[in-house]
């Protein structure tokens, strides 16, 4: 069992910059939780505090009820995989992976057995004698992962480990890492700014902004039920339209959507896949451009005031640039003062 508890943790750097602001989080045994947010949101600082590379200004961090807040990194039951790999170029693969076990004073035979086992697990069986410069970027990242896993940590920490890799390799490695994590049932905290990685890998996503949590939930809930305009705009593609609700309808540049909410300013949020189009002249919007991706098309729309929206179309060839269309949202969310005030989903 390995449960990570972060209680009311803050980190204020010299000069007064607050990187993490009174944040609490619990990661359950065997769970993979992803910290997702833009640069400067505090996600990497939080991860480094769990790993012991930064000390909290206030708050406590526990692993299985044991307070590790003031422990040095090497004393913690954690292991971190860095974005930069942090491998020793003068050592071969075997020595890189075995380094931590040798510091623990394990017998040579046990070290060899453990290292060979973990190299096979990450797809590098037979690579022990190779030097780091002889490996591709993806293979180097596998070595970094193996070096962490061989220590059998209670908590695995991943700090944007795929950021420097190309898209296809990134997709393949994240599938492999997820498979390994589920097979070992190791509690994992994963930092990324890539929403696709968070949606495809995480049991839960923590969306961070300015050192605080905007929303915590399962990937499907965060995608389909974003609680704030920030989360709505950060996760996936979202049409966010500022306007007014007057006499029971949201209005903006020719758009009129009936809504059972009080009058006042509001933000209408509609996913492209939930925005249907009906040919109409002159229409609420005009087709600006159509991009055919084979499996679907993305239709760029323009309102009368220049506002741009997107719609996903299964038959993009049925539309043409300059055509007038009316907008029919099948699912929408309405925000006011950065909080959800109404949600409607229908077929």
UniProtKB/TrEMBL annotation:
Keywords recorded for this protein, A-Z: ATP-binding, Nucleotide-binding, Transport
Identify one Pfam family in the record.
TOBE_2
Reading the lineage from the top rank, the first entry is: Bacteria
Family designation:
Belongs to the ABC transporter superfamily.
Protein name per its UniProtKB record: ABC transporter ATP-binding protein
Q: Does the keyword Transmembrane helix apply?
A: no
Q: Which SMART domains does this UniProt record tie to the protein?
A: AAA
- Residues of the ABC transporter domain: 4-235
- Specify whether Transcription is a keyword of the entry: no
**Which cellular component appears as one GO term in the record?**
ATP-binding cassette (ABC) transporter complex
Q: Which InterPro entries match?
A: AAA+_ATPase, ABC_SmlMolc_Importer, ABC_transporter-like_ATP-bd, ABC_transporter-like_CS, Mo/tungstate-bd_C_term_dom, P-loop_NTPase, Transp-assoc_OB_typ2
Q: Which GO terms describe its biological process?
A: quaternary ammonium group transport
What Gene Ontology molecular function terms does this protein carry? ATP binding; ATP hydrolysis activity; transmembrane transporter activity
Q: Which Gene3D superfamilies match?
A: 2.40.50.100, P-loop containing nucleotide triphosphate hydrolases
Organism of this sequence: Jiella flava
């Amino acid at each position: 069992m390995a449960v990570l508890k972060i209680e009311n943790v803050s980190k204020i750097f010299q000069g007064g910059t607050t990187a993490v602001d009174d944040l609490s989080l619990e990661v359950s045994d065997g769970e993979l939780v992803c910290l997702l947010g833009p640069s400067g949101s505090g996600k990497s600082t939080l991860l480094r505090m769990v790993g012991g590379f930064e000390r909290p200004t206030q708050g406590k961090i526990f692993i299985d009820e044991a307070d590790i807040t003031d422990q040095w990194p090497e004393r913690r039951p954690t292991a971190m995989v860095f974005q930069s790999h942090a491998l020793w170029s003068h050592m071969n693969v075997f020595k890189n992976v075995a380094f931590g076990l040798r510091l623990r004073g394990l017998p040579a035979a046990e070290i060899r057995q453990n290292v060979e086992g973990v190299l096979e697990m990450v797809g590098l069986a037979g690579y022990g004698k190779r030097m780091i410069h002889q490996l591709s970027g993806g293979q180097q990242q596998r070595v970094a992962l193996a070096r962490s896993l061989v220590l059998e940590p209670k908590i695995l920490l991943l700090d944007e480990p795929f950021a420097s890799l190309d898209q296809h390799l990134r997709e393949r490695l994240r599938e492999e890492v997820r498979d390994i994590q589920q097979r070992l049932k190791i509690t994992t905290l994963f930092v990324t700014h890539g929403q696709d990685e968070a949606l495809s890998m995480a049991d839960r996503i923590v969306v961070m902004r300015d050192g605080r949590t905007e929303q915590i939930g399962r990937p499907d809930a965060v995608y389909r039920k974003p609680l704030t305009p920030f989360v709505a705009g950060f996760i996936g593609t979202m049409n966010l339209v500022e306007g007014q609700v007057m006499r029971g309808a949201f209005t903006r540049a020719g758009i009129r959507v009936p809504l059972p909410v009080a009058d006042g300013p509001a933000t209408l949020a509609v996913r492209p896949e939930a925005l249907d189009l009906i040919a109409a002249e002159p229409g609420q919007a005009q087709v600006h451009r159509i991009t055919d991706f084979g499996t679907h098309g993305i239709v760029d729309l323009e309102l009368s005031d220049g506002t741009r929206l997107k719609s996903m179309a299964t038959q993009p060839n049925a539309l043409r640039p300059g055509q007038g269309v009316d907008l029919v949202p099948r699912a929408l969310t309405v925000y006011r003062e950065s909080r959800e005030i109404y949600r409607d989903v229908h077929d």
